[in-house]
């Protein structure tokens, strides 16, 4: 399905975000809650399908400094409520009220925060890494400490689940920094141009896009099942 | 399970709401989104279990002037995205930004708003009424037009699904106004004292209560299945 799916450019996705704000009056805290929940639900079903014996997967959630990090904090909280064994690594914490609130909500439910990646960091360390470092707006060079973190997770052998875009990829140009390719990609609202050739497992999260936005940008609608908040396209 | 479940008083529920705000820093737009989604999901599964042949149930969502109405607007939007045939009746619309935004989000996805209940209003009109008129803070007399609306829905023979508490019931005292008893109750966070003797179908919606709040108020935890946001207790 990936090949026939509409992949949006940076400009189109920026336009959609503006329409969510101006035309839909979606509040950031509302939208981020829906996005993070959708991502958590996609991972939950993915694990159920691929590792049904692992009831409490160990997931390391890596949180970047922006909105993509906020999505990851929301997903971490919901996964914890689903019974997952969650750890958060959040190396750069901006002083932004919304992100501080989302952090508190994770601390409040006893999710441990680690200060660095474990010294012995390999495929046995976690069942999944949920990568919420950078989103579709990332451009330019990867600065420290994220350069080292991205290299380490890429080399770890742990299954990587990227939220929205693989961190360090550019929305239109793709993996220009020659970093890792995730096993699983959970695109928010629509797949981005960078994932056109992606051959891993691909979910679209976000069953909240009104038809007028679907029509305006010519989006493809994922095959949503039941009341699921995600659809699988690859 | 109802009989063994902790039912909270008005004072306890007010304390929980204060803790959601002060201790969890849950934003109203975030919490209402979670509550409304949970209620929509509970109704979705309820219909799947009881009316599996009705794929696109007709639901009249009645929206009151406060936060309970906000929950109902969120539930209406999600149910529409699930493919339901939704109509909204929202007779008194306060000029509050959050409620106006939630209203716009329903208008944006072509949910029709009606100005009065249909003249021929009986058990064939809708599969369900989602009652989001009043929540657990309701006290005193039922004013017009809600008095007439509540009488009409009670007499309609349509299955009524109440969000949080049956509208016009008082949290601690119950059905003091001798109005209707719903078929299905979707309590938010915890069942209220008024539902202690309730014998209908009862869901608890809201898988977002941290353990410290569960412990502080001695709450019972519903049997959440999978990644469902609701648990069935009756």
UniProtKB/TrEMBL annotation, chains A, B:
Keywords: Isomerase, Metal-binding, NAD, NADP, Nucleotide-binding, Potassium. Its EC number is 5.1.99.6. It holds the Pfam family YjeF_N. NCBIfam families: yjeF_nterm. It comes from Euplotes crassus. One of its GO terms (molecular function) is NAD(P)HX epimerase activity. InterPro entries: YjeF_N_dom (IPR004443), YjeF_N_dom_sf (IPR036652), YJEFN_prot_NAXE-like (IPR032976). Gene3D superfamilies: YjeF N-terminal domain. This is NAD(P)H-hydrate epimerase.
């Amino acid at each position: 399905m990936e090949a026939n799916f509409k992949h949006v450019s940076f400009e189109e996705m920026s336009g959609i975000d503006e329409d969510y704000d101006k035309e839909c009056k979606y509040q950031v805290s509302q939208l981020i809650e829906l996005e993070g929940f959708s991502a958590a639900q996609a991972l939950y079903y993915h694990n159920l399908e691929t590792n049904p014996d692992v009831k409490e997967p160990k997931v390391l959630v890596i949180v970047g400094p922006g909105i993509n990090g906020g999505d990851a904090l929301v997903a971490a909280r919901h996964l914890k409520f689903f019974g997952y064994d969650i750890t958060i690594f959040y190396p750069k914490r901006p002083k932004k009220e919304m992100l501080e609130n989302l952090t508190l909500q994770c601390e409040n439910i006893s999710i441990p925060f680690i200060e660095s990646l474990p010294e012995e960091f390999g495929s046995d360390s976690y069942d999944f890494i949920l990568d919420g470092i950078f989103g579709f707006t990332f451009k330019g060079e990867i600065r420290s400490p994220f350069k080292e973190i991205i290299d380490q997770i890429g080399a770890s052998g742990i299954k990587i689940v990227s939220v929205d875009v693989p961190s360090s990829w550019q929305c239109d140009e793709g993996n220009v920094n020659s970093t890792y390719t995730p096993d699983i990609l959970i695109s928010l609202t629509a797949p981005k141009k960078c994932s056109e050739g992606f051959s891993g497992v691909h979910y679209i999260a976000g069953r909240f896009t009104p038809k007028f936005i679907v029509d305006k940008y010519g989006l493809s609608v994922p095959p949503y099942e039941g009341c699921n908040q995600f659809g699988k396209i690859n």
